[in-house]
Write a structure and sequence with these properties.
InterPro entries: G6P_DH (IPR001282), G6P_DH_AS (IPR019796), G6P_DH_C (IPR022675), G6P_DH_NAD-bd (IPR022674), NAD(P)-bd_dom_sf (IPR036291). Pathway: Carbohydrate degradation; pentose phosphate pathway; D-ribulose 5-phosphate from D-glucose 6-phosphate (oxidative stage): step 1/3. By secondary structure, the protein is α/β, with parallel strands linked by helices. Helices cover about 40% and strands about 20% of the residues. The chain folds into 2 domains: about 140 residues, 3-Layer(aba) Sandwich (Rossmann fold); about 280 residues, Dihydrodipicolinate Reductase, domain 2, CATH 3.30.360.10. The structure holds 6-O-phosphono-beta-D-glucopyranose. The site of 6-O-phosphono-beta-D-glucopyranose has 4 residues, from loops.
């Protein structure tokens, strides 16, 4: 259980708060992780929204919790911690004084300011927190992407926040880092002698990181059309996953040590500039198609704006130029409106150096470690074995299943719950340092600049497919193929 804390949730009535944050806090309450006197202050712009907040939150919980999680009893306890307030973030008037009164003068109690608001108002919000004297020794601020549009704007946002909070109190969320299997990936790598010795260019042929989604714009057309898949998914989630897979063992699991290793990976990422962008990256945009038996419109129809060349898919061949990974391609892929929703990391091992069996035994399939983050969480290792009950010697791939949800049948993991409790407990290990954000943008910026300068047009792909043909060709040219989720 965490120590008691106060969390001021700016943007309390917004989509992120209602879809993810309030359900995450409810789950934390259900599992007994919220100390009884902890208080949550969702901030709404209008008084009437604050007045009806309990109804809104209850509806959100009923809609967004998984089957069986909501109960009237659970709600009537949880709602005691919710105290909605009305506040115009930009104006330092008496509404802020009211918030200050509610928070009181306890300087020992952790005070978390969660900014689930557009970055354009981060500055005024932090400034008013400061003017009203609400920031004390135990205060932390939690922020989330989009932290800028490129290196420059990201730096401006970070500088603004840094005017009011020291880096140690700034918790930048990437919700992928809160996913249970991502943390288990670290345990797998650094607590098993088996894997860490087989984790380099000597044994690994290549690595794939794929995040495929079936959803389209989900009412975020304005934001998404400005951002595109590279900014929305690669700059943050995919590069973070890549860091965790590729980094050296940190001296300890402290935030400082983990971040130092991640930054080294980002700095070793081979830059893709000019024509290298065309050679190593495929951009795509979906056209109408069927996902299952559900027909969906194309991106441009959904957007209702002809001529946008924003990418909704991207596939990348990346290299990390260091001793461990020399010559090992990292293939990254993400897209909207693809055939299946799945986030998966595939560690593809090399072939055995010599096949001792004759042809009748069949080919040995190279080992493969498949780490699935969603929809379900699993870790599977594909090994070769002898086919059972066969008099002949016949090789067969078998799956060693390290799936957590089958071992712990009550797993109810929730990335936001994990990260919010970490922020409350002042544990920044799974949050992102300003230097990481800067290093990621430094890699992404020249790619976007090349697309802009050349007027690059995305390749089209049918909604419900695995992306454009060119993405398959990218790997085929290397004698490889994407592992598509089954
Ligand atoms: C967000 C992106 O960061 O991650 C969305 O902005 C995307 O476009 C989402 O849909 C995916 O998160 P998850 O956890 O559902 O895979």
């Amino acid at each position: 259980m965490t120590n008691p804390f106060d969390m001021v949730l700016f943007g309390g009535g917004g989509d992120l708060a209602l879809r993810k944050l309030i359900p995450a806090l409810y789950r934390a309450h259900l599992e007994g992780s919220l100390e009884e006197s902890s208080r949550i202050f969702p901030v709404c712009r209008r008084q009437e929204d604050a007045d009806s907040y309990l109804d809104t939150a209850q509806k959100a919980l009923k809609t967004h919790l998984r089957d069986g999680e909501y109960s009237e009893a659970g709600w009537s306890e949880f709602k005691e911690s919710l105290r909605a307030v009305a506040l115009d973030i930009a104006v330092p008037d008496e509404q802020w004084d009211h918030l200050a009164d509610l928070l009181g003068g306890d300087n020992e109690r952790a005070r978390i300011f969660y900014l689930a608001i557009p970055p354009a108002v981060f500055g005024p919000c932090c400034e008013n927190l400061s003017i009203k004297g609400l920031i004390h020794e135990q205060s932390r601020v939690v922020v989330e992407k989009p932290l800028g549009y490129n290196a420059k704007t990201s730096d401006e946002i970070n500088s603004k926040i840094a005017t009011y909070f020291p880096e140690k109190d700034i918790f930048r969320i990437d919700h992928y880092l809160g996913k249970e299997t991502v943390q288990n990936l670290l345990a797998l790598r650094f607590s098993n002698v088996l894997f860490e010795h087989l984790w380099d260019a000597q044994t690994i042929d290549h690595i794939q990181i794929s995040i495929s989604e079936t959803v389209g714009l989900e009412g975020r057309a304005g934001f998404y059309n400005e951002a595109g898949a590279l900014r929305d998914m690669v700059q943050n989630h995919l590069l973070q996953l890549l860091c965790l897979i590729a980094m050296e063992s940190p001296n300890s699991m402290s935030a400082k040590n983990i971040r130092a290793e991640k930054i080294k990976v980002l700095e070793a990422l081979r830059p893709l500039v000019g024509v290298e962008v065309d050679e190593n990256i495929v951009r795509g945009q979906y056209v109408a198609g069927g996902i299952g038996d559900h027909l969906v419109p194309g991106y441009l129809e959904e957007l209702d704006e002809p001529g946008s060349n924003t990418e909704t898919f991207v596939a990348i061949r990346a290299h990390i130029d260091n001793w461990r990974w020399a010559g090992v391609p990292f293939y990254l892929r993400t897209g909207k409106r693809m055939e299946k929703r799945c986030a998966e990391i595939v560690i593809q091992y090399k072939k055995v150096s010599h096949n001792v069996y004759d042809k009748s035994a069949g080919q040995a399939v190279p080992n493969r470690l498949v780490i699935r983050l969603q929809p379900e969480e699993s870790i599977k290792l594909v090994l070769m074995a002898k086919k059972m009950d066969s008099l002949e010697m016949e090789l067969k791939p078998v799956e060693l299943n390290l799936t957590l949800s089958e071992t712990y049948d009550s797993i109810r993991s929730d990335a936001y719950k994990r990260l919010m409790l970490d922020a409350a407990a002042n544990n920044p290990a799974l949050f992102i340092h300003r230097e990481e954000v800067a290093a990621a943008w430094a890699w992404v910026d020249p790619i976007i600049e090349h697309w802009r300068a050349t007027g690059d047009q995305p390749c089209l792909y049918r909604a419900g497919s695995w992306g454009p043909q060119a993405a398959d060709d990218l790997l085929r040219l290397d004698g490889r193929a994407w592992v598509n989720a089954r």
